[in-house]
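Preliminary data (for renewal application), 6-O-phosphoryl inosine monophosphate complex.
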Amino acid sequence: MSKASVVLGCFYGDEGKGRTTDYLGQFSDVSVRASGGNNAGHTIKVNGVKFAMRLIPSGILSNKTIAIIGNGVVLNPAVLLGEIDMLKSHDIDVDRFLKISDKAHVIFPYHANLDVMLENKRVHKIGTTKNGIGPAYCDKYERCGLRVGDMYRDDFESVLRQMVATKNELLAANNEPTCDVEEIVATYMEYAAKLKPYVCDTVTLLHKYLKEDKNMVVEGAQATLLDIDFGSYPYVTSSNPTIGGILTGTGLSVRDIGDVYGVIKAYSSRVGEGPYVTELCDEVGDRIRDLGHEYGTVTGRPRRCGWLDLVALKYAIDINGVNYINLNHLDTIGQFDIFKACVAYDVNGVETQDFSTNEEFLRTAKPVYKEFKGNFGDISACRTFEELPADAQDYIRFIEEYTGTFVKLIGTGADRECMIVREQ
Ligand code: IMO
Ligand code: MG
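Predicted structure:
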């Protein structure tokens, strides 16, 4: 029986998880999304074409891998159907490979309206993606959410009408735009029909695939520090992008998990609000943003940028049981003469390597940096660790010693082949 490899973000998202999944996809028969929704944006470049994946696991791009949207996902049908069309226009056999959990929750237009309303009312803004992710998860836990499978029940139309009416009352009471019931009913009946061929019980299917010894990769979305429990609450997303959410979002058991890949960049970034210890609000941060093209995949929002935070990385490794690190953008950091990584926090004069998501702690902590030599030159053609310049090797060895975790995959450029794979 095979075990599933898991790919997880170790910081605030946008670490290049799509790259890792794409690499593992070469050997995988099945790829899976477990949590989040179209708040994710995973960029993968295949044969010179850039794909921005939001809901469908990027494994599908190999055109030979089954792609499963698990029960833990909140699903916007309009976005999904757009993604299906986009993939089909690139000759990807979506009809053959895509499977959608009947238990995934559906996002409706009122979720996005509520997302905007709630954000406007917040004293401490989160900077959500306004895709209705939080309100959709709220409905799930309040037990009034509608799941993909519910769209095929005889009473779907009447339940939906009632739900839109309830949400409209709330929106109207707050002077927010309401939703057109007839329009929602008509479009969602149409979405339901279009999605029906893909819908199934993915839990049973996943276990069947493992028993058939199929290679499986679970593609994480969002990241550890955006986790609703283990992230910098309240500046987080509304799901568990960490290892626990992988289990509850798929129905895999702890025994089904094999390697856990933790993905980071050689520097760091964050979108949205919230504390960020190693953020650089100066021209150095601007330079990282320009060199790393740190703008949102979907929204184009400029990302906040800073040095790599090894204190936070160690925490992410502990939370998720990471056994392999995937370090991306080594080429980007190598363009600096000198660059830094945070090796401890100074909290009111006391140095610590212990991370905490307590807001006051994170806002008080000052990064303690170690400097590294850059100027790596063009490393995009390096295919082995030994081919890398000595200073680049030193940086990676330092990360390994600090975290006690092997750096298995090293991103050396934007193209698919710019990836060093090391054997331990
Ligand atoms: P990927 O998978 C980066 C952030 C948002 C916001 C907070 C809450 O591409 O790494 P939400 O809309 O989820 O309620 O927003 O979480 N956020 C992400 N940031 N990458 C992501 O996904 C994100 N998904 C959510 O910017 O600060
Ligand atoms: Mg993103």
